[in-house]
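Quick illustration for those who missed Monday's session on complexes.
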Amino acid sequence: MDLSVEICGIKLKNPIMPAAGPTVRNGDSMVKAAMGGAGALVSKTLSVAPAHVPRPCLVKIRDGLMHAELWSDITLDQWVRHELPKAKKTGLPLLVSVGYSPDEIKKIAPRVVDAGANALELSTLYSGDISTITEAIRAAKEAVKVPVFVKVPPGATDVVQFAQAVEAAGADGIVAINAVGPCLVIDVENGMPILGSPNGYGWLSGQAIKPFAVRCVAEIARTVKIPVIGSGGISTGRDIVEFIMAGASAVQISTAAIIRGHKVYGLLADEMAKFMRAKGYNSINDFKGSALRHMSEQPVRTTPKPVEVISSRCNACGLCERYCMYDAIRIVGRVARVDPVKCYGCGLCVSACPTRALRF
Ligand SMILES: Cc1cc2nc3c(=O)[nH]c(=O)nc-3n(C[C@H](O)[C@H](O)[C@H](O)COP(=O)(O)O)c2cc1C
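Prediction with flavin mononucleotide bound:
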C-alpha cells in the first residue's frame, strides 16, 4: 500500500503531519512526533519575540479543545540553534511555522531555512488583513527559495477570496483551516471564563470543527491550483480519507495528538491503509479530490430516498428507533423495520447506525 505523497517537490512517506501546536513545541517533541509515525514535521509557530502565554490556555470540551496559546514561548535563537537542528536529525521533511508581519517574516525566514526548514508555513492568526498577509508572502518568497505555505486565519469569512489572493501573491500551498473562533467557555460553578486570555476568549479545535474544515478544503481545492493541506478535527483514518477526497494533498493533526499522544500519526496511517485496501485503492491519487466532481453534479433532491435495512448487519440496538422523529422505524423481532410511508428520508438513522445496517 503506497501512502506516499509529494507536495511542492517535498516527498512524504505518508500524508500525515502534526499541526502547529503544543505537540511540536520544541525539538524533543518533534522527535517524538517522528517516532509516532508522522510523514513530515511542522513546528509550533515561532516569531521574533517569545509569546507571553496566558494561563490557563487550554480547556477540554465535549468534542474538542479550546485554546489561547498564541505562538511559541521559546526565542528564535533557541529555535534555530537547538530545536530545529534536533527535529532535522529525524530525516523527515521539516515545515517551520512562522509569524507574523512582513518585516518579521523577512527576519525569520532566512534563519529557519539555514537551520534546515524544507518549507515555511505562514501562520496568519495575528497577521492583520489580507493585504498584510499577501505582503508577508511576498516577503517570504523574496527572502528564501523553499516553498511557502499559508494557513487560513480563523476569521476568514470567504476562504475562496483568501485562497485566490494568496495564490496570486505567490504562495506555494495553503493550510486549511486553523482553529475556529473566538469562542468562550464559562465555568458554571463560579461564573468565570475558564481561559486566562482577555475576556476568556479562545480558539476551538477538534472533532467539532471537522465538517467546517472539510467544506473549506473542498472550496479552496476547487478554486486554486496550488496544493491544500487539510487540518481540523481529524481523529481517524477515515477522516483523513475524507479530507483527501475533498481535495487535500496531505493533512495536519493537533487536537487528536494532544489527547491520544504522538502515536496517533502512525495509528491513523495504519487505519487509512486498511481502508484503502478494503476499497481497492493503491495510492492516494486513486481517490484524491474524488468528492469534488460529485459536489458539482449532485442535484438538490426534495423527495425521500427509501431507507433499506441490511438485516444481517442489524443488531436491534434500537438507536434508529429512538432517533426517528417520524415514528417510521420499529425493532420487530431482532431487526429494524422502516415504514416507507412515514419515512421522511432525513438520513439521521443512516448516519447514526453503529453497525452500518441502514443505507439509502
Ligand atoms: C493548543 C493549540 C495550539 C495551537 N497553536 C498554533 C500555532 O502556534 N500556530 C498555528 O498556526 N496554529 C496553531 N494551532 C492550530 C492547529 O495547528 C490546527 O490548525 C487546529 O487546531 C485544527 O486542527 P485539530 O482540530 O487537529 O487540532 C493550535 C491548536 C491548538 C489546539
